Amino acid sequence: MEKYTIKDIAKECGVGVSTVSRAINNHPDINPHTKKLILEKIEEKNYRPNSSARTLKKMENNTIAVLIKGISNPLFHYMIDIIQSEVLSKDYAFILKKVGFDEDETIVADEIIREQKIKGIVFLGGIFTHTEERLKTLTVPFVLSTISPSKAIDGRVYSAISIDDVRESARMTEYLIKLNHKKIAILLAKKEDVSVGYLRYQGFEETMKKHGLKVDEDLIIYSEGDGDLFSMENGYNLTKQLLSRGKEFTAIFAISDRMAIGSIKALIEAGKKVPEDVSVAGFDGLDISYYYNPSITTIRQPVEEMAKETIKQLFMLIKGSDTNKHMIFEGSIVEGNSTRKIRG
Amino acid sequence: MEKYTIKDIAKECGVGVSTVSRAINNHPDINPHTKKLILEKIEEKNYRPNSSARTLKKMENNTIAVLIKGISNPLFHYMIDIIQSEVLSKDYAFILKKVGFDEDETIVADEIIREQKIKGIVFLGGIFTHTEERLKTLTVPFVLSTISPSKAIDGRVYSAISIDDVRESARMTEYLIKLNHKKIAILLAKKEDVSVGYLRYQGFEETMKKHGLKVDEDLIIYSEGDGDLFSMENGYNLTKQLLSRGKEFTAIFAISDRMAIGSIKALIEAGKKVPEDVSVAGFDGLDISYYYNPSITTIRQPVEEMAKETIKQLFMLIKGSDTNKHMIFEGSIVEGNSTRKIRG
DNA sequence: TTGTATGCGTTATCAG
DNA sequence: CTGATAACGCATACAA
Predict the structure, then answer these.
(1) In chain D, which nucleotides are within 7 Å of a protein Cβ?
(2) pTM for the full predicted model
(3) Positions on chain C within 7 A of a protein C-beta
């Protein structure tokens, strides 16, 4: 009972182990009758091949690992759902691994690759802090998903699925400006951030300038510390900081929906009404942005498509393609009740 | 480069493989000098032992698997965080596996056990639909976490960490009644539910009766269909159903915070104000219940403690304990602005 | 303190 | 179509 192996199956069926192996792995050259017999016995005894022995022998492991940075980001839940089912439908196993905000995911990836001989990796979330050197050490195909590429690194060494953060941020900024907002505060990630945070700021700044509007330094709020900077809590704290500066503003652009929620909370606590006194915009297009009160104006990321494309790209690489692609998806404004047109 | 094994290390160091193995596994009987030499070489070559070979040889895999049903439930994110770090701190590996709502997690567990020879399992979330028979097939220690035990099954065959859903639900009902609410609608899971959904209804019903209040059949809304019934979307739909019945009510008790959010959304859309026209209460104590507008009155589950206790129990079982425990944690009311006192 | 040899459960090769 | 047997990489009993 304790260990029940292929040998036991073979013995009980009166055949050799290789025959059993053939039955398990759907090899063509096996007598259908014997095969049926074996499979029935396997079913009866509830036998399952030892995966360690299997991967040891085959020196390959049909497994895709998803390394997720920020498991509390609801944006990823759909994606995981889709990715998992896509992976399983291709008869690959699926590993989900949470990476801490202070961990280097390439190191985690490297360990998994060496230890488990997996076939591919999806890096989900986090910001782009990888050096070209480190990316090159990854010996299996991988795709960066919802992680904006860095211009500093040769794009040919990695595949990425993302939106154009600069463009989408500009889109939102345009929208706010069209509503006559001129004094727009923005809640950002860390000052040193070179990824999502920086890109979204860039789109904001460009658009402001394009419209001849000045970006007031005092209305730019950077995050500090570690942990999940895109959280409600951080949005809440940043907004309190903003309010304490005493500067006038008519709109807040939070670079995530969750930050926007925290921001609205802080505003309400301070006795301000949204959108009557202040308009607040988010980014991501989470469900909660619709269900929040007021519903939040946001940029919707096409998560389903992005998840599917992530897997598609990954499998193309696994199947031998050697051209890394950077797929940029288009977001869209979802108008909520957290923003309003003010007098110009 | 492609495959770099313990043999290569041994060869390059001019020692035998067993010596290398001893160095890796911190065996006592090894010359410190040789050990240092070997470890340096390992570092230099970035060698990592093949985990398949390892577990195959040892026929054991120091791994804990968490099978999570409902990855979008934020309640679980903290727990996973804590569980993962607790597990890793004990030098066990950690596997996270998402189980679909329509999947039988005991079957998934069984597969992992047989294939991967893991040491223990945490079932996180979902409802208790396991038969005693199936639970007994599980050959490794496991703990049901945040899953309310079923009275129908001999408690000695499994360990469980949970709150007392009946008691906590009663607690919330008491609270609403104290605010003079008499016509309370309740949003539930499926009618056939024998787990969380049923237990929370039971606490509600008992408390209503205790106070001589009648439970109006028309104010009980059951969910239908599959998928995540505790979601915002479902709360939204159930509330629309409730409203369409045209019955009078002054409060809604949603059995999850997310349902409560959906519920409030539906009420607002219908032109009702929360809490002025209708009070809404949730259950779970998610962060969002604080950040929502209005903040939501809810029952806080002590997730940190529960997560820690889950792992503690699991490891006690792994270490040889054979007494299954059912730890019941106490929740607490968190008063928000979604409920108010009405005239008695 | 060290090296050699064996076997963990499986798949692949090759001879029947 | 089938069965014996050799690997896969590692840990360990045993010999040195």
Answers:
(1) 1-5, 7-14
(2) 0.91
(3) 1-5, 7-14
